[in-house]
Write a structure and sequence with these properties.
The complex is a heterodimer of chains A (217) and B (764).
Chain A lengths: L1 H15 L5 H15 L3 H6 L1 H7 L3 E6 L2 E6 L13 H8 L18 E4 L2 E4 L12 E3 L14 H8 L9 H14 L5 H7 L10 H11 L5
Parallel strand pairs in A: 1-5
Antiparallel strand pairs in A: 1-2, 3-4, 3-5
Chain B lengths: L16 H6 L14 E7 L5 E7 L1 H5 L3 E5 L8 E2 L8 E2 L4 E2 L5 E7 L2 H9 L2 E6 L6 H4 L27 E4 L2 H7 L2 E9 L12 E7 L2 E6 L4 H11 L7 E5 L15 H12 L3 E4 L2 H7 L5 E10 L5 E13 L5 H8 L2 H5 L5 E9 L13 H18 L4 H8 L6 E4 L5 E4 L6 H11 L1 H4 L8 E3 L2 E12 L7 E7 L5 E4 L9 H13 L6 E3 L18 H28 L6 E4 L2 E4 L7 E3 H5 L5 E7 L7 E12 L5 E11 L6 H8 L3 H8 L30 E7 L25 H13 L10 H7 L9
Parallel strand pairs in B: 1-14, 12-13, 16-17, 23-24, 30-31
Antiparallel strand pairs in B: 1-7, 2-6, 2-8, 3-7, 4-5, 9-17, 10-15, 11-12, 11-14, 15-16, 18-19, 20-21, 21-29, 22-23, 22-28, 25-26, 26-27, 29-30
The chains are: A alpha+beta (217), B alpha+beta (764).
Chain lengths: 217, 764
């Protein structure tokens, strides 16, 4: 069903051709880019942005599901200025990714992009064309519902209090473990350096990551 | 020694654990109501001004805008303090701090609401502003409110809230002292509570009744304050707490989104969400109360404090928000830190044109503990006493009479066991006597790195404050529902109640269901404050469970003609004690498949159970860069009975914000304009993972034999205090490392280098 829809959207995209206003896109990026403190000139000139500018839609995979997102201002479309966090939360209703500072300073919106932890509030969705995104909702086994060992370890170690920063911390830790399955405590601390927690669950989060490390994914 | 329980004292998964780790927990920003609008606030660029003219025509015409609210059409609700001096309007003709509300907009999206704010034209008549509390109280200072003549926050109803401690004869006390020392200290860095989730509220009106969903940490209190402020009858306000991304005190106020959302929703006749941004959280929501205090302390060579005299002057900021209660509660620091019979200490508070001060973990006593500890350090050094010995000598012993000021000034007789054994145990495990080299003496010097150790103790007497009511319902199929009125915001409150019910009724965790945090479900509940949940809410919960069990067994007794005292229940079955397994009666046989048994429990409110927490620290000061860093921290406390070791560990490890308060956290104001200069998480520093010190701890479980009512399973709370002892311990350790005394937080590198004579000039 979903696949069928995607196919249709792809066809629609082909038909429309290159009608999307390149200038409008750059302006939008410039506005949101300035707000985020991103070097707009650099971004607009980059190869991936050049490619995106010509498009009316982008394709990406979210939690294993291929998606085509139309660019535009209709309710089911994404604006060029939408951040990945906006799109995940508002369009895809994946609300496990939290937005709190919206300026890339707290790590609450951390998701994996091609296996690397990124801040979803500081990425434009249009930059994610062709990317593989995994959010907190994508860690558990879709068929059995079994939790990722890292999630289970956070439960077993009570590695949270209010739970609000937990999805971001888990995604940062997941990114670390995918790169380095036997991290030291220092590695874990560095990997979580961008994740804010105020309740004081830092030590227990470190324990949770270290205890699952090396046990396989 | 703790008893062997089945559900208590053991690490078990938190009840919402799966939702937290899978992203399914529903915080306020994850909730949408049908037809919901978004509210935004136009904020004042001036610290003090009159709105001469405000033009909203263009904003109103913007497609998608539903309401533009100014002082002209805002509801005439009056909030603040709470209720002693109602003075805070939803939006006023006068603005009183940079960021104060000038107008509110509700629109179909946040973007449109933000655009609309830019279309509002305002002419201000800028007034002189006053930022400092002492200046604000001087004759001729700019006046903030008619309700507060002279900007003085009046000492209304001293029979309800104490504002000073006057006992004994200080003149006589100073006469008996071997030394008299004087010291001043300030805690004025206006630390932000900074819960990861900024506050937010959705309001909806239906037939004159208001429902709010919010990131709210005390639904009972908010329900009461809303009802009083909005002049609504009981039953007309429903408060529902979503999952709460922590609060630390900052989400127990109706100032901010809780006031704006109902006002906009009423005007729009649609649900409205007001969701604070991080910047608004920093620059407009309540910060830790600023205050400074002077002390004169008389001390004998043996560590006996003969007299304490002094005054604390607090900067309450622009809006009254429980600061008076904080000052009253803070006075507990005096008996906690000094066993002194002659005290004359008073508190005062001023309204000023800065960000409002409000509750933040350590409700007044954290501030006073820091202020008084700094002065006591001077006294301790004068008599050259080991601070551990001083604290053991000055601790409140069971049966001691002490003064505390919350809920009027009164003398309590301590029902808590002495804290001295916990101090001793902590000192042994930290190897204090080995590491302590004397006042002003470093424990280690390695090139530019100078290390010192310190100890801080804090305490409070509120673990039994306010009353609690609970309902426990037994269901026929062996399930239990608890109607509790509490709110979970990270502390584990509801898990604690649940464990007690499991233990009392011997039913497994998955058979006990805790009601939602909804003020219309279950009896009215004050909520989690001052570490009261375990004792106060726990007592009522356990009483309700025991009441239900009694009713169940009485009915079973009549049915099977076995005396009630010979019956027991576990796993939804009733057994005759000692009978062979298999001969059991299921609950359904007693109550029928449509029946339930309801138990009720009440807790009356007590203020006689002082409780403590302390930290030992080792601090390393880099005399080259001026950076002070806590490298080792050891916590000691006495919980009576640990309910869950991991949940309590998490509470104790909340100390990081205490380190931040002492060393680097500060809301920086522009002294000319009153504007907050660092309302973001880059310029406002907090502890991050790589900076954590090593942490160890010891938790004693001393029997509490004198508490009335008895502590449930001998347990009482001790989590709130984690921040409070950190500052005093750190400031002592820095003094010991480099021999320099500081009289304010945060002790940043520039202040250390200045003290060491490595940079010139004082504070501007």
């Amino acid at each position: 069903m979903e696949k069928e829809k995607n196919e249709k959207e792809k066809e629609k995209e082909k038909e429309k051709g290159k009608g999307f206003s390149r200038r409008g896109f750059i302006q939008s990026v410039a506005i949101s880019g300035a707000a985020l403190g991103i070097n707009v000139t650099g971004l607009a000139k980059s190869a991936s942005a050049e490619a995106t500018i010509c498009k009316e839609s982008i394709s990406l995979t979210v939690n294993g599901q291929p998606l085509v997102l139309q660019i535009g201002d209709q309710p089911d479309e994404i604006l060029p200025s939408d951040t990945l966090a906006d799109t995940l939360r508002e369009k895809l209703r994946l609300t496990g990714t939290k937005i709190a500072c919206d300026h890339g300073t707290c790590g609450l919106c951390t998701v994996l992009m091609d296996d690397k932890p990124v801040l979803a509030c500081s990425l434009l969705t249009v930059e994610c064309d062709g990317k593989n995104i995994v959010t907190i909702e994508g860690l558990e086994n879709k068929i059995t519902g079994q939790l990722d060992p890292l999630q289970q370890s956070f439960i077993d170690n009570t590695a949270f209090q209010c739970g609000f920063c937990t999805p971001g911390i888990i995604m940062s830790a997941k990114g670390l473990l995918m790169k380095n399955s036997h991290p030291t405590e220092t590695d874990v601390r560095e990997a979580l350096a961008g994740n804010y927690c105020r309740c004081g669950s830092h030590y227990m989060a470190i324990d949770a990551v270290l205890k699952v490390a090396g046990k396989g994914r | 020694m703790a008893k062997d329980y089945k559900y208590i004292g053991k690490a078990m998964p938190r009840r919402r654990a799966v939702d937290f780790v899978t992203g399914k927990a529903q915080y306020i920003r994850d909730i949408k109501r049908p037809g919901m609008l978004y509210g935004k606030v136009l904020r004042s660029p001036y610290a003090h001004a009159i709105i001469k003219n405000i033009n909203t025509v263009h904003a109103e015409k913007l497609p998608g805008v539903k309401v533009v609210m100014t002082y002209k059409n805002a509801p005439k609700w009056l909030a603040g303090e709470p209720m002693l001096v109602p003075h805070h309007r939803v939006v006023d003709k006068k603005v009183r701090y940079v960021g104060d509300a000038v107008a509110l907009v509700a629109a179909t999206s946040e973007r449109i609401a933000e655009q609309a704010l830019k279309l509002i034209k305002v002419d201000y008549e800028v007034l002189p502003a006053v930022f400092d509390q002492v200046e604000a109280l001087k004759p001729g200072a700019p006046q903030l409110y008619d309700e507060y003549p002279g900007n003085f926050v009046p000492k209304y109803k001293p029979e309800v809230h104490g504002y000073e401690v006057v006992i004994g004869d200080v003149k006589k006390g100073f006469g008996e002292a071997d030394y008299v020392v004087e010291h001043t200290f300030a805690v004025e860095n206006r630390q932000n509570p900074l819960p990861p989730e900024p506050a937010g509220t959705i309001a909806e009106w239906n037939n004159g009744k208001l429902t709010i969903w919010g990131s709210i940490q005390q639904i009972g209190l908010i329900e009461m304050l809303m009802r009083m402020t909005l002049k609504l009858r009981p039953g007309h306000v429903r408060v529902i707490a979503c999952d709460v991304g922590a609060g630390y005190g900052s989400k127990a106020t109706i100032i901010g989104p809780n006031l704006y959302a109902p006002a906009l929703a009423q005007a729009a006749r649609q649900p409205v969400a007001v969701l604070q941004t991080r910047e608004e959280q920093f620059a407009t929501h309540n910060a830790r109360m600023g205050s400074r205090a002077r002390y004169k302390i008389g001390i004998k060579k043996d560590g006996t404090v003969t007299a304490i005299e002094g005054e604390q002057i607090a900067n309450g900021g622009a809006i009254g928000c429980l600061q008076s209660q904080m000052l009253a509660v803070g006075l507990i620091a005096i008996p906690i830190l000094a066993k002194c019979q002659n005290v004359n200490f008073t508190t005062n508070q001023a309204r000023t044109n800065v960000l409002t001060a409000g509750p933040y973990r350590g409700f007044g006593y954290l501030e006073h503990t820091s202020l008084l500890s700094a002065a006591l350090h001077v006294a301790m050094e004068k008599i050259d006493i080991d601070p551990v010995e001083y604290f053991k000598k000055n601790v409140i012993e069971e049966g001691d009479k002490y003064v505390h000021c919350y809920e009027k000034l009164k003398v309590s007789t301590s029902a808590a066991p002495s804290f001295a054994p916990a101090i001793q145990k902590g000192a042994e495990l930290f190897r204090w006597s080995e590491r302590w080299k004397g006042w002003g003496k470093p424990s280690m010097v390695d090139g530019d790195k100078w290390r010192g150790v310190g100890v801080g103790i804090s305490g409070e007497s509120d673990v039994g404050e306010q009353s609690s009511n609970k309902i426990v319902q037994l269901n026929p199929f062996g399930e239990v529902t608890v109607y509790h009125g509490g709110t979970e915001f990270g502390t584990g409150t509801i898990d604690v109640m649940k464990r007690m019910v499991c233990e009392s009724l011997q039913v497994p965790l998955d058979r006990v269901h805790m009601s939602d945090s909804d003020s219309t479900v279950g009896p009215w509940e004050w909520g989690s404050t001052g570490s009261r949940s375990t004792y106060a809410m726990g007592t009522a919960t356990l009483a309700a469970a025991e009441d239900a069990k009694k009713k169940l067994l009485e009915r079973a007794s009549k049915m099977i003609h076995v005396p009630v005292e010979e019956l027991e229940t576990r796993d939804g079955m009733i057994f005759t004690k000692g009978a062979p397994p298999g001969k059991a009666l299921p609950w359904i046989a007693v109550m029928g498949w449509q029946g339930v048994i309801i138990g009720e429990g009440h807790y009356p409110g007590r203020f006689n159970l002082p409780t403590h927490q302390g930290h030992f620290v080792e601090v390393e000061v880099d005399t080259g860069t001026g950076l002070a860093k806590v490298i080792d921290l050891f916590t000691f406390t006495d919980a009576g009975q640990i309910i869950d070791p991991l949940m309590l560990k998490g509470q104790l490890q909340g100390f990081n914000a205490g380190i931040g308060l002492a060393l680097f956290e500060e809301t920086v104001f522009d002294r000319a304009t009153g504007r907050v200069l660092n309302p973001n998480m880059i310029d406002y520093k907090t502890t991050v993972f790589p900076d954590l010190p090593t942490h160890n701890y010891t938790i004693l479980e001393t029997p509490i034999t004198k508490a009335d009512p008895p502590c449930p399973y001998n347990a009482r709370g001790c989590g709130e205090m984690s921040l409070a002892p950190a500052g005093p311990a750190i400031i002592m350790a820095i003094y010991n490392a480099i021999g320099k005394r500081f009289n304010e937080y945060p002790i940043t590198p520039d202040k250390i280098l200045r003290a060491l004579g490595k940079v010139k000039g004082g504070a501007a």
